[in-house]
Hints:
By secondary structure, the chain is largely without helices or strands. It has one helix and two strands; from the N terminus they run αββ.
Amino acid sequence: MSNQTVVHELLEHYRAGQRDFSDTTLRELDLLHLQLSEIDLSRADLRQSRLGKTNLSRGSLRTADLSEAILWGTDLTAADLRGAVLREAELSGAVLTQAQLTEANLIKASLSGANLSEAKLDRALLIEADLRSGVDQQTNLSSASLKGANLSYANLGGALLYRANLERASLCRAVLVQRSPQSLLVTDLTEANLQGADLSYADLSGVILHRANLLHADLTGTILHRADLAGATMPDGTLHD
């Protein structure tokens, strides 16, 4: 069966009201600019498929394999991606507001400019992921592995990074506090591992860094006004009072 036929049949079934396409093989297919909200693609094989600008909002892609898939600008609002494999996937500009990505594999994925507002990425693997100018408010990255990730210019205001591993991550000029007339959203980096991280010129005003590891971190030009560093290991190895 040709790739074009597979896509045509999927669309025909979807338009007829079918939503369950779990365990389907859709590898290396062109699925661009489609309306597939609330679709169930749990455990589907979508490796190297092209889903740019497709609407997958409120869909289920739980434990689906999206390795090297193209998802630039894709609408994944409130989608269930728990345990999904998105290794080296292209998610630049994707909308992942309120998406569930708990324990998802996003190693070396590109999420630059992605909207992750209120997304759940706890225990996710984001090793060497590109999150430049991405993330957004109140993202849950608790216990996530961000080792070597690029978070330069990212908006982390109000993000939860409790026990996150940010070893050798770049947070150059990242914003970790979000001010508005209504509220002050402060980032929680309690017990986070920031060993060797680049925090140069980042704004950490009021950020919670309880018992965080900042050994060998670059704090050049970093704003630490009223940051809570109680018990933190400083770049020179000393413990902050």
